[in-house]
Design brief:
With about 210 residues, the protein is an alpha/beta fold. The protein has helices at about 20-30, 45-55, 65-90, 100-110, 115-125, 140-150, 160-180, 190-210, and strands at about 5-10, 35-40, 95, 135-140, 185. The chain has a single domain, classed as 3-Layer(aba) Sandwich (Rossmann fold), CATH 3.40.50.300. Bound molecules: ligand Z5A. Ligand Z5A binds near residues 97 and 191.
Length: about 210
């Protein structure tokens, strides 16, 4: 694929502030004249949104870890082909609320699915497409859960125990350390303005490249 746009993913645990940051980043980039597409995972396409509804449904308690992993990648395979790759090829930037790192963190770290199995699904489903930059919003589990607590009934994944989310966080942090060129870890415990400021700073190399 001849990709001319830039692909940025946002990652982090529950309540870390991805959606809040996404809105700020979208406005900032639009102000710089960047044409961008905003999307999310699981979801972002008709198929993906239907899968998301199933994946988060608390009534689907018996879903196996294997089925969950495949459903995440089915959503991703569709999103890559239907929206992300076409947008990048057209020179647009893509801001995506979660991408493949979430499967390593949740299905790998959280559920114990083998990392090599996830890597093999990634190379098949994503066809070599990976984010240029991944902003990891890092926050202690209890703080994230406290932020998310006011939203009513927990969905199927939010209903997991703290230990699950500790494994998710540890996996994200390990991935960020292993790939420092792609990841930027941001302390999500700051104010929304501080988090946005750090994220904008992390975008500068991409913005400079784009203006050349
Ligand atoms: N999942 C998976 O298992 N495998 C995969 O491959 C993928 C996903 C792609 C849905 O994702 C679930 O799918 C998710 C992982 C799993 N399950 N869990 N848990 P999601 O991204 O849609 O859902 P989420 O992680 O639950 O998102 P969230 O809880 O909505 O978090 P957020 O978007 O990061 O937070 P927010 O909505 O911006 O902020 C939450 C609250 O905190 C809100 O009241 C804000 O006003 C407040 N907030 C935000 N920033 C701040 C700061 N800086 N200070 C204070 N308060 C703040």
């Amino acid at each position: 694929m001849n990709l001319r746009g830039r692909f940025i993913s946002l990652e982090g645990g529950e309540g870390a502030g991805k959606s809040t940051l996404l809105t700020g980043l979208r406005d900032h980039l639009a102000g710089q004249g960047i044409d961008l597409v905003q999307t999310r995972e699981p979801g972002g396409t008709r198929l993906g949104e239907a899968l998301r509804t199933l994946l988060l449904d608390p009534a689907l308690g018996g879903l196996s870890a294997e089925s969950e992993l495949l459903m995440m990648f089915a959503s991703r395979a569709q999103l890559v082909r239907e929206r992300i790759a076409p947008a990048l090829e057209a020179g647009q930037w893509v801001l995506c609320d979660r991408f493949a790192d979430a499967s390593y963190a949740y299905q790998g770290g959280g559920r114990g699915q083998p990392m090599e199995r996830i890597a093999s699904l990634e190379s098949w489903a994503c066809a070599g497409l990976a984010p240029d930059l991944t902003l990891l919003l890092d926050l202690p589990v209890a703080a994230g859960r406290a932020r998310a607590a006011g939203r009513g009934e927990a969905d199927r994944i939010e209903a997991e125990a703290d230990a699950f989310f500790e494994r998710v966080r540890a996996t994200y942090r390990a991935r960020a350390l292993a790939e420092p060129r792609r990841f930027r870890m941001i302390d999500a415990g700051g104010t929304p303005q501080q988090v946005l400021h750090e994220a904008i700073a992390a975008l500068q190399p991409l913005l400079r490249e784009a203006s050349r």
